[in-house]
Amino acid sequence: MPTTGYRYRNFVAGDAWDINGTLLDQDSNPLDLTNAFIVDSSGSAVETNATVTAVNPPSKGMINIKLSAATTATIAPGRYTDALRITRVGRTSTFRGSSIRCVARNAFA
Fold first, then answer.
1. Residues contacting 13, CB < 8 A, separation 6+
2. Is residue 30 part of a domain?
3. What is the pLDDT of residues 76-86, one digit of tens each?
4. 59 in a structural domain
């Protein structure tokens, strides 16, 4: 079963989110993302607004997930579990990600 190497983090609603990580195969080796199609499938309201890209070189399995400040401003505080759908060589796999905690912006910041 594929796993992910990116970690649990806290993010503030209304800030731009930039998440980096490494996808690993069942043997804990970096997953080759050459010619892969990657889609965020977190199941939350933000899934269609996330931009997911493979970082060069794609053979190292590194990814970057970006969400705009406008998108995250609509996310209610709480804990979310990220997931990615990766299609490569005609096969689709779901990678369960880390927990992401969205916190409200401090009114006094």
1. 72, 73, 75, 76, 77, 102, 103, 104, 105
2. yes
3. 888 887 788 88
4. yes
- Cβ within 8 Å of residue 109, ≥6 positions away: none
Could you say which DSSP state residue 56 is in?
S
Q: What is the CATH number of the domain that holds 86?
A: 2.60.40.10
Which residues span the domain enclosing 33?
3-103
What tokens appear for 41 in the block? Answer: 């499938």
Residue 109 lies in a domain: no
- Evaluate whether 54 touches 84 at the Cβ level (below 8 Å): no
pLDDT tens digits, one per residue of 17-53: 988 888 888 899 999 999 998 887 665 555 557 888 8
Would the CA dihedral through 16, 97, 85, 63 be positive or negative?
positive
Within-domain flag for 108: no
Total-model pTM: 0.79
